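Protocol step 4 of 6: structure prediction from sequence.
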Amino acid sequence: MEIIRIRVATHNGKKRVLLIFDFEPRLIGKIKELPGRRWSKTLNCWHIPYQKDYLAYLNETFNKEVNFLPCKSTSNEYLLNHDENAEVQFESWQERKNISKKISIEIPKEFEETLRLKRYSENTIKSYKSHFSRFLAYYSGYDLEQITDEQIRAYLLYLVTKKSVSTSYQNQVINAIKFYYEKIKDRPTSKHYLQRPKKEKKLPVVLSEEEVVNILQQIVNLKHKCIICLIYSAGLRLSEVINLKISDIDSHRKIITIKGAKGKKDRISLLSDRVLTLLREYYKQYRPKEWLFEGQKGGKYSPKSVQNIFRAACFKSGVKKHATIHTLRHSFATHLLEHGTDLRYIQELLGHKNSKTTEIYTHITKKGWDKIKSPIDSLNLVTNE
């Protein structure tokens, strides 16, 4: 059953009922049918006009297919219940900005602490917390320690059948749940109930060399061009390029040192002559202090900004493929293979632990295709004119 958390609040001087839930197209479609519904950017949620019997009205509208829950209150949080007097005036931007954080399910403190002690990356910690919070919300009201393997299986089945989540999403959920019960509570979870999905064998999207040229030519800003060129020329991940320091660039040996990459591994990659020339121009103009690419207010460059740069360049170039920053890394490996680079060297440059991970590029390279002729080209077909 879907969960929508509700609260009564005064918004823009009017009494409203806030509807707070995780993104779900079906629920949004239903809410858009409600009279007087509005979306608030500041509160980051949908809200409807307040009426005395609003809970009964919502239950009737959604045919009791949705579980409407008040936001549980703890210390320093807003009080939320079904009392019409429990109103809140959102007076500051900070309060509006943090509303989602204030109503989130509280995760056991030891969950994040253990993740940090085991030196998980910030992205992994964020992902695990998000997935485990949704799991707790699904079984809101249950004792966490008493949730059975059968209930965990039921939640996974709900995600697959009702939410149609991807296999990677399903795997992340399993990892987060297993981490809590196995690593923190020392309770083995049955493999029979937490079965892994069959791994998808999808080929990565790869840009042709001509498409890469077209994309790079759309980028005028020197810093932006350096970032995108560096990613493609060295096969870097997004997290790797924004974590580069000035000292990681060795112009004499023509190498880039990537420290603490995926799997906490260091490696080196190529520093092309063309990119080195760009970087020297960039350094003279921007004078970064610590990080190779810094934001306007200092500190590391924003990952979202890099994504926006690449997305805009793809749009201007007319490239129709569903390309992301990571597509440049795939393209780097594929183009090296097509130019005759040994697969073993490509594996080292990408930092792959297993050679089978690198071998996927053999399935998408065009190397040798010019010697293969389609059988239809050998048929003596008579065209009708």
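Step 5 (inspection) to follow. The chain has a mean pLDDT of 83.
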